[in-house]
Amino acid sequence: MTFQSNLKKYREIAGYSQAKEFAEKIGVPYQTYMGYENRGREPKFSTLIKIADTLHVSIDKLLGYEAHTPDELERTIRDIQGCGFLVFPDNRDQTQAINDRPIHIINEAESTKPGDEAYTIDGQTLIALSKKINSMALNTYRESKHQLYKLAFDEVQKMQIQVIYDKLKTDPDLKSLRDQITKINPQFFDKDNIVDEDNNTHGNK
């Protein structure tokens, strides 16, 4: 596939159904962007990087370059080994291309007897699987990071609310406002902590 068709495909996969929306996202004039998708124009390298980052795909994928090199297979093997697998490339048949040769993989950590958790996969398939798994792992990492950010933001917001509450409760200049609040809710200032640790609601524990 060409860069033009790949760009449109990955834009839509990323959720940008409208080309204009995506052009605004990457800071490129709409007509310029449409030149990339429809008229064979090539973006500057800095723009290409921004497009790839925004779509969460590699530049190779955008350009349609999918060649599997020996170096790529070696990187894949190291990655799999780093995840706790034993990897044994089978190089007995030298007439086969390196990426077509079988590779034996053993999950030693979870095997209970010889032969358990043992696999044989050719290099081409192994590289493709590794790319897919790394993409899935990256998405999982983003989701986990999103949750951590949310927890952190919630905690900061609680602290900010507490500061306002303490100021309302003690600042002499806010006595008039404090009196108005007390008329509505006489027990509003009875707490030390405004946010209930059990259910995150306002009120007495």
Detailed description of the structure:
This protein is mainly alpha-helical and 205 residues long. It is 56% helix and 7% strand. Strands 1-2-3 form a three-stranded antiparallel sheet. Helix 2 (19-26) packs across helix 3 (30-38) and helix 6 (70-82) packs across helix 7 (123-170). It starts with a helix and ends in a 21-residue tail after the last helix. The relative contact order is 0.06. Mean pLDDT is 84; it is low at 197-205.
Kindly summarize this structure in a few lines.
It contains eight helices and three strands; from the N terminus they run H-H-H-H-H-H-E-E-E-H-H.
Chain-wise SSE layout:
Layout (H helix, E strand, L loop, with lengths): L2 H11 L5 H8 L3 H9 L6 H11 L3 H5 L6 H13 L3 E4 L12 E5 L11 E5 H48 L4 H10 L21
Antiparallel strand pairs: 1-2, 2-3
Helix pairs in contact: 2-3, 6-7
List keywords for this structure.
205 residues, mainly alpha
| Overall residue-averaged pLDDT value | 84
Radius of gyration: 28 Å
Strand content: 5-15%
Q: What is the approximate shape?
A: elongated
Largest sheet: 3 strands, antiparallel
Counting DSSP H or I runs of 4 or more residues, the number of helices is: 8
Helicity, as a percent range: 55-70%
The string of secondary-structure elements, in order, is HHHHHHEEEHH
